[in-house]
Design goal:
It comes from Streptomyces hiroshimensis. With 393 residues, this protein is of the alpha+beta class. It has 12 helices and 20 strands. Bound molecules: 8-demethyl-8-dimethylamino-flavin-adenine-dinucleotide (RFL). The site of 8-demethyl-8-dimethylamino-flavin-adenine-dinucleotide has 34 residues, from helix 1, strand 9 and helix 9.
């Protein structure tokens, strides 16, 4: 097989890139290790910045988003038993965010791609990217499961959109990139509950016992999180204990949290990671393949979209003019936004989580930071700006 841009991974990054390239007339092929059902079911992000929603609309994937997405005009920060609302439009020149699960974004993009878009091969697991620093990189992949048939895809460029554990990162020779990593000393216990959300907007609590988040997937399904110590097992947290702790950490005035059957329960660690530069020869990385943020600021999916918009622009410019100038600047252009999101995600994480061993002084500092970002200050405006995100197109 041969194409212009070989895309590894059919997550949000790879699928959006394929859509953008197809519309610009640049040939591409997407190779995805898993089957369609698995990719469409994988539960992950839920919040789209306005810039991300606008890109989906612009490329024809906005119909269901506009019908079913929940537009949020703000969120609450809760601490010391009080709720402080952050109003996004009034602080960001009218911007909002939209709750629309990643599973649905992926379903919409797959449906568009299978209706006459570029080839998308499910069950095609990439095992190696070769000659990335030459003129004609080669992607080796296996179809048909373990012991399956090995095939090759020759391309002019490879887009590594295969997440944190994909083949693209493994193709980077030692010493070709720097990898910056931070692991946080706490994790998130997340539940999906079969109960209508107890608030129309996200509630983020910075309690001295730890962080809590009230969020939603649909008008009938709530998504809630609690900060827990690293190495916590979900079995340590029976449903009643989770609801009791959420009640304590999210409490504000007469507000009440509705309880319901817990459908899923899982613990995930919090990590920051950046690969610098996001390119090696003709292999360009995007999304989780290039960087990870802790979920506290809900930036992962939005950053992935920012990367592939930048990448699609660079490939389109090269395809039309023969100039590699934007491809050469791809990494620098992305990394400015990536580090900004790293900074904001780190700020939100340390603003709201109780660090192990924190003392009364640390708590006083944290409360002071919380009061600054919820008062009429420049810090509050900066928080709203960062939360809403910058336009992508
Ligand atoms: P993805 O979504 O991981 O997609 C990568 C795709 O590549 C495929 N793949 C391969 N294909 C071929 N050959 C190989 N060798 C391959 N290896 C892997 C995979 O099967 C997959 O289909 O990366 P992408 O596209 O960069 O998208 C990034 C987002 O998924 C990610 O940033 C967010 O979901 C992160 N994230 C969250 N972000 C938010 O903004 N808000 C959230 O609330 C939020 N919650 C989450 C999250 C990530 C989670 N993870 C990683 C487990 C919750 C979880 C649990």
């Amino acid at each position: 097989m041969r194409t212009t841009v070989g895309i590894i991974g059919a997550g949000p990054a790879g699928l959006l890139l394929a859509r953008l390239l197809h519309r610009a007339g640049v040939d591409c092929v997407v190779l995805e290790a898993r089957d369609r059902a698995y990719v469409e079911r994988r539960q992950r992000a839920g919040m789209l910045e306005q810039g991300s929603a606008d890109v989906l609309r612009e490329c024809g994937a906005g119909d269901r988003l506009d019908r079913e997405g929940l537009v949020h005009r703000g969120f609450e920060l809760r601490f010391e038993g009080e709720a402080h609302r952050v109003d996004l439009p009034s602080m960001t020149g009218g911007r909002t965010v939209t709750l629309y699960p990643q599973t649905e974004v992926v379903k919409d993009l797959i449906a568009l791609q299978l209706e006459g878009g570029p080839p998308l091969l499910f069950g095609a697991r990439v095992v190696a990217v070769e000659k990335a620093d030459g003129e004609q990189p080669l992607v080796r992949f296996v179809t048909g499961g373990p012991g399956g048939q090995e095939r090759t895809l020759e391309c002019e460029y490879v887009a590594g959109c295969d997440g944190s554990y994909g083949a693209s990162r493994r193709a980077l020779p030692p010493g070709a990139v720097r990898i910056h990593v931070r692991t946080y000393p706490y994790s998130w216990l997340g539940i999906l509950a079969d109960v209508a959300p107890s608030s129309d907007e996200l509630l983020l609590a910075g309690h001295e016992r730890g962080f809590a988040l009230h969020s939603m997937r649909t008008p009938a399904l709530s998504r809630l999180y609690l900060q827990v110590p690293n190495d916590t097992s979900p079995d340590d947290w029976p449903d009643e204990r989770i609801w009791d702790e959420l009640d304590i950490r999210l409490a504000a005035g007469s507000w009440r949290l509705q309880r319901g059957p817990v459908l899923t329960k899982s613990v995930s660690g919090l990590r920051s990671l950046v690969i610098e530069p996001m390119r090696h020869g003709r292999l360009l990385l995007a999304g989780d393949a290039a960087h990870i943020v802790p979920p506290s600021a809900a930036k992962g999916l939005n950053l992935a979209f920012g990367d592939v918009v930048t990448m699609a622009r660079a490939f389109t410019h090269w395809h039309r003019s023969g100039s590699t100038s934007l491809i050469d600047r791809y990494s620098d252009n992305c990394l400015r936004r990536v580090w900004q999101a790293q900074y904001f995600s780190h700020e939100m994480t340390t603003l709201l989580h109780a660090a192990p061993g924190a003392d009364a002084y640390d708590r006083a500092m944290q409360l002071t930071r919380l009061r600054r970002v919820t008062g009429p200050t420049a810090a509050a405006a900066e928080l709203a700006e960062n939360y809403a995100g910058a336009p992508l197109i």
